[in-house]
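Protein entry
_____________
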Amino acid sequence: TLKWRHLMRPFVMRWSLAAHDICFTCSQHSYFFSLGKCIPVVRGAGVYQDAVDFCIEQLAKGSWVHVFPEGKVNMTKENMRLKWGVGRMIFESPVTPIVIPIWHIGMDDVLPNEPPYVLRLGKNLTFNYGNPIDLSEMVVKLKERNATDVEARKQITDFLQDQLLKLKAETEELHRKNFKGSL
């Protein structure tokens, strides 16, 4: 939903985590996704991996890092536990990032997640951008009480999950209102 000029200015464009086993399987895909500032993340490798370390470095520089906090495409649209790497990035970043929660509905109608992968135009989309979330106070309190890394990651991630689920409900209502009951 950004303007095209953002895509043409790499220093303005966001960094994003992308599954190494999907987006980086051959040299052409690797080149394409690297141009899009995608960082290969290894699913199942945990919160202490190079991709998460790199994101923390980028956040320290004030860069924008976009993540899909479930860590995978949510094919069933069920409520999924967010990955603790999100909590680690926020807790360990020297500058606590502002989180902009986003929920969208309908992208899987435009480009299905299963074959045939054919772009379908004229579908109903709803993008909902929540209010910015400043976790600075929470991070300071966690550090002041010497919370363990695990406690900090869990508290931050749980809080963000609650915020996203509220945004999900709000987005579903917007989608129903704007597209007369479709979901």
Q: What stands out?
A: Strands lie at 15-19, 38-41, 65-66, 98-99, 102-105, 126-129, 133-134. Residues 4-179 form one domain.
